Amino acid sequence: MRKSLFAIGLLAAVYSVQAQNVLVHVDDAATTYVSEGTLVYSGGGVQTRGAGIMDVHGNIMVEASAADAFKTITTGGADKTDGGNIVLRLNTPGAGSYDTSTYGQLYINGISTANLTGIVSKEYRTAKNGNGNYFQQIALPFAGKAYSSLSTELAKTFGTTRWTQNEILSWNNANVVSNHVTNLANTTPAAPMYYMLGSNNNNLDLSTPPASLPTIAPTATGSVFTLNGAPVRSEDLAAVSLQNAGASVAFGVNGNNTNQYNEKYNSYLQDQFDYTTGVFLGTYGKNIYQFGNPYFTNLDLSRIGYIENGGVTDGNNIANIWGVKYSTGTVETYPNGTTFTTGAQVQTFDQFTGVPAGDTGLIIKPMQTFVLKLRDNTAQTLNFSTLRRFSSTVRAAATDYNVTAAKGIVGTLKQLGVIALDATGKEVGRTYYVVTPNATTGHQTTGATSIQAAATGGDAIGTFEELPTGGYDNNNVNYWLYINEANESNFKGKNVKLVTYNPAIVKSYKFEIKENTVPIANGAHALSAGIGFYYKAPNGTAQQAVQGAVIPVTGTEYDLYYGEPSNIVLAANENKAPSRTLVVYNPGIDNYIVRFDPNWKKADIEVYDMSGKLVISKKSVETSKDFVIELDKKIKNSYVVKVVSDKGDIVNTKILK
């Protein structure tokens, strides 16, 4: 950081008060305006008095000593605790723009706990996680904030009774369960906590703040929530230990056991990493950690999986990291009844190099949560304070070409992202095809070494596991993938299958190509080795995939290649595609669905419980949209689902509830 930079749009009544260990003071009724994109640096304490305001649309960095102060005081000099003085703005809070809005950020180092009493007002707005009765996932970057204050700030009366969805839950990593707050007078700890706020009957819909809630001018009423509290002191956040999450928990087959609250583990824990081979691998629920960003600055998780070459490093080296899910996404239902979860983001890490694949942005915003999974229980640490970053993009890797430098990365990780767009150009889903010299081609017996991640019923598109010779692996079409991997050497020029189940909605594909997380140039095709990705439409010819290109979708099934295909008529199994009907869980609606093969016109569906009793029977079901398997959620049981097409194709599968 450049410590000499002190640029602000408007500075009123700011002066040095060295005797009070305050370098920057904003007096009563004065306003300091920190414009978007600006960095204000203070090498000492910061204070507001009375109605003085620091209106922060950009970034404030405070590097101070323990004797310095960060305060909001009244005109009489007492601590002012009602907020409204140091305001971190959401710059474009309107509907349709808040999700991509820039925002004010605050970075503080060095001040003692006793002197860090200033109240920060954080503007906040985000989409709710789902339809119906759900919990809103959130981080609370405040130390000592009473849980009861959330009722006023979010216009929602919280309680302490579990299962009302009016409670406040906090995640317990060791036991892999959310505990509920039993006393709302308790306060938030200085920790990277992952919270879920009950939203019974959608009266906590964080996408539409009530107009009755007060805001701090000039932000329009009804456009944001404003949460208030003292910031967390970075020095109070020691590097967290990553070991023994779920180590003593017996999750049961596919997570079918219950926790201490008599809740099925698989009713709330979706382990997208464990199911990448079509069966649960035995690591379900193990080594999963859920955290919230404890700061008012972004966190950059992009390089936590390896030691970087050169002098710049984030100080983290989680060598056994498997993946991160850092956005739960939002649920959207189209007029035909199809429900997609859009915006969910998953990143996996190559086990040999630590280079990430998939959604490689990995910037965790203030008040955002994320899920991290390790491949095994080897002890690791995660230092949050070294990950803070004002920028909304990940930091470029340090590169050292000295011959004595540690040899970190062998080969490169190359990925083709395919983004599904609807008729308006809006994203409705995405999937990734990844190749490296170390990746495994075809079905894997253990997912603990892969960089794959499973797709869910909330995804609009995905790829299927490939045969070593290319095309569908007919033995493994009971699941599909959000991130698919193949070895760049033995699978060069061969195809993986890209499928959409909703041609009425998915109208075009956009290509996003990266190498070691860095996008290639717009309009480019070739990667560093001179080889690129290709695609083939139904009954078409192989075409170069070009960075940023948008192509119309002309069918439900496409082929993806790394390296130019030498023969587009591949394996014999390509002559007749297997049935692609899936029975999958859709987290957006908290239910299992039947997602039909796009070639099916009608289907009969039967669902049996484990005693053989027929509990659901539907004839001539329309296959143009998902069929929701509506089972009584109060009854915990296993079921067999039989789906028969109008042409006699049969799909049998088992689900556990």
Structure write-up:
The chain has 657 residues and is mainly β. Among the domains are: 109 residues, no CATH class; 161 residues, no CATH class; 75 residues, Immunoglobulin-like (Sandwich). It is 1% helix and 34% strand. The protein has one helix and 48 strands. Strands 30, 31, 32, 34, 36, 37 and 40 form a seven-stranded mixed β-sheet that branches. The protein starts with 9 loop residues before the first strand and ends with a strand. The N terminus is likely disordered.
Q: What topology does this entry show?
A:
Elements lengths: L9 E2 L2 E4 L4 E5 L4 E4 L4 E4 L3 E4 L3 E4 L2 E5 L6 E4 L12 E3 L16 E5 L10 E5 L9 E5 L10 H5 L14 E5 L4 E4 L14 E5 L25 E5 L10 E3 L45 E5 L5 E3 L20 E7 L2 E4 L5 E4 L2 E5 L6 E3 L4 E2 L4 E6 L5 E3 L5 E2 L24 E8 L5 E10 L16 E2 L6 E4 L16 E7 L7 E6 L7 E8 L2 E2 L13 E4 L6 E2 L5 E3 L4 E6 L19 E5 L4 E5 L6 E8 L4 E9 L4 E2 L9 E8 L4 E7 L1
Parallel strand pairs: 3-6, 4-7, 5-8, 6-9, 7-10, 8-11, 10-12, 31-34
Antiparallel strand pairs: 1-4, 2-3, 12-17, 13-16, 14-15, 14-16, 18-28, 19-27, 20-26, 20-29, 21-24, 21-27, 22-23, 24-25, 30-31, 30-36, 32-34, 33-35, 35-41, 36-37, 36-40, 38-39, 38-41, 42-43, 43-46, 44-45, 44-47, 47-48
